[in-house]
Specification:
The protein has helices spanning about 5-10, 70-85, 95-110, 145-155, 160, 165-180, 210, 235, 240-250, and strands at about 25-30, 50, 90-95, 120-125, 195-200, 225-230. With about 260 residues, it is α/β, with parallel strands linked by helices. Strands 2-1-3-4-5-6 form a 6-stranded parallel beta sheet, sandwiched between helices. Strand 3, helix 3 and strand 4 form a beta-alpha-beta unit. It starts with 6 loop residues before the first helix and ends in a 6-residue tail after the last helix.
Length: about 260
């Protein structure tokens, strides 16, 4: 089992009021994203402790080398999740690349014989069995091409895209995360026994609605899909609606 070091490096954003009865909701961000993507969700999902994961290479872990392959990343995240949950019920949420990482984390926990989450939430991500069609590898793109792609996806402030110094900070983890995605190989395993909620959006260039519907084949548990109006980051742009859907799905697990 991989060593994780200081757990606070991985989980830097804690609920302001500790509640031992709160359901841990581990959140994994999109490519290049950090824990701050979920900061506004604090106290927004009643009965849960929203715990965004901070991956190396960004924000408070800027000087650390980011992971570049799925297996290594998932191995350590599975350890972080099982250590923090400590046998309590928990849920997982992942957006875009984070959805794939969350899914593979659940499968890694199963292989270890560890408890499964009570619910898996995925957004902005085609089902893992879908053939990837993301265009040219990001690692080979020139900076202007990467900026153009980020601008097309949305979610990155324009001032940041126009700042050469800021780009030097955000592009390395972004490229590394895309290496995780581009080298990922889906391996068939028995379906999970975990309920899945899929949060799709009407105009997502990286995850068409019909490809998100195929998450149905990844579990024998119930699957529910909600489709939000908007693009790749609709779940954050409509945060109140997203949090209400999470609250509804977790109602039986929270007080």
């Amino acid at each position: 089992m991989p060593l994780i070091g200081d757990l606070n490096r991985w989980l830097p954003v804690r609920p302001r009021v500790a509640d031992d009865d709160a359901l841990p909701l581990f959140c994994l961000p999109h490519a290049g994203g950090g824990a701050s993507a979920f900061r506004s969700w604090q106290d927004g999902v009643p009965g849960t402790a929203v715990l965004p994961l901070q991956l190396p290479g960004r924000e408070s872990r800027l000087r650390e080398s980011p992971y570049q392959d799925m297996d290594s990343l998932v191995a350590v995240i599975a350890t972080v999740v099982s250590t923090e949950a400590a046998g309590r019920p928990f849920a997982l949420y992942g957006h875009s690349l984070g959805a794939l990482v969350a899914f593979e984390t659940v499968r890694a926990l199963r292989r270890r014989g560890r408890p499964q989450p009570v619910h898996l939430f995925v957004s902005g991500c085609s089902a893992p069995s879908c053939p990837a069609d993301d265009g040219p590898p990001v690692g080979g793109m020139a900076v202007p091409e990467v900026v153009q792609m980020l601008r097309r996806l949305g979610g990155t402030p324009e001032w940041l895209l126009a700042d050469a110094g800021a780009l030097e900070t955000i592009l390395p983890p972004f490229r590394a995360d895309f290496s995780v995605k581009e080298t990922y190989e889906y391996r068939a395993e028995p379906p999970l026994m975990v309920p899945i909620t899929v949060l799709a959006s009407t105009d997502d260039p990286r995850a068409p609605v019909e490809q998100q519907e195929m998450w149905l084949g990844e579990t024998v548990g119930p699957v529910r899909q909600h489709t939000l109006a908007g693009g790749h980051f609709a779940v954050f742009e409509q945060g109140a609606l997203t949090r209400s859907l999470l609250t509804e799905a977790l109602a039986q697990w929270v007080g």
